[in-house]
Amino acid sequence: MTIGEKIKQRLKEKGMSQNELARRAGLSSSGISTIISGSFEPRMDNLRQIAQALDCQPSDLLDDDGIKKEQEAPRDPLRESIIRDYDRLPPEARQLVRQYIDLLAKR
Length: 107
What we know:
About 75% of the residues lie in helices and about 0% in strands. By secondary structure, the protein is mainly alpha-helical. It has 2 domains: about 5-70, Orthogonal Bundle (434 Repressor (Amino-terminal Domain)), CATH 1.10.260; about 75-105.
């Protein structure tokens, strides 16, 4: 199942509309719609917000291919440490990190 299919299934189980999910997750209704339709993959922070609104873990919503790829990927302690540090940052600092990464990627 894809991420969108899993979200749709959770919505049905909870009797929740896409608009209600969007409100609870702090995202736009159109954003939720594009994720469910499969035309857009959510960023991890958005996936966390959606999972929280659906009372589940982000890993519960990952598509089966995404789970398989994660299991096959070699463990990278530095990457994991950076992600943990990033997750602790406030939104303003995360935006600065994003801008810095974009700047480095242009080199």
